[in-house]
Amino acid sequence: MRMRRLLTLSLLVTALAVGLGVLVTSPVPEPVASTRGPTLSPAESPPGRAPYAVAVLHAWDVRRARAWQAADPAALRRLYVPGSTAGERDVRMLAAWRSRGLRVQQLRTQLVAVRVRAARARRLVLVVTDRVVGEAVSSGGVRTALPRDRASTRVVSLRLVAGRWRVASVRTQR
């Protein structure tokens, strides 16, 4: 029972700290900026920015779920701006899970709402409300479904680095 509580707490902390994205039904290519690729212009109306921001979150979340499922700290680290506290926390959490012989089989979050606070060609600041809707872990081949969490809201700052959107910071919305 104690192990299950620790597992639940660990996953919820991870989800609350950096869990982003939408319920994954099929992978969507990441919006990648290049000299000819999509960028956000200040002239875009807010409704025009929201679909792009949701696509960025979805693509980021798919990559994060894959890194967790593969138990790959290097892949996870690449999702964050170097020195990001949220990234360091996520990598430490993955290491803690690995040291206990645990692996995430699924990591999915459901996007409840997203509001674009700032949108520049190389920076997005989003107010994101999401919740974990389904995840499972295994230890020695045993799958354990964990309870759903409640929706929570965070301010997520992303930066475009080397053509990829990376999380710079995540902080609780007050």
Topology:
Layout: H1 2-18, H2 46-70, H3 73-77, H4 85-99, E1 102-120, E2 123-139, E3 142-145, E4 152-161, E5 164-172
Antiparallel strand pairs: 1-2, 2-3, 2-4, 4-5
Helix pairs in contact: 1-4
The count of strands amounts to: 5
* Poorly predicted segments: 2-47
Shape: globular
Helix fraction, binned, reads 25-40%
N- and C-termini, Cα separation: 33 Å
User: Mean pLDDT score, rounded?
Assistant: 75
Rg for CA atoms:
16 Å
The number of helical runs is: 4
The major β-sheet equals: 5 strands, antiparallel
Spell the H/E element sequence: HHHHEEEEE
Overview of the structural elements:
The chain is α+β, with helices and mostly antiparallel strands and 174 residues long. It is built from 4 helices and 5 strands, in the order H-H-H-H-E-E-E-E-E. It has helices at residues 2-18, 46-70, 73-77, 85-99, and strands at 102-120, 123-139, 142-145, 152-161, 164-172. Strands 1, 2, 3, 4 and 5 form a 5-stranded antiparallel beta sheet that branches. The longest helix is centred in the middle third of the chain and has 25 residues, at 46-70. It starts with a helix and ends with a strand.
What are the key terms here?
174 residues; alpha+beta; five-stranded antiparallel beta sheet; 5 strands; 34% strand; disordered N terminus
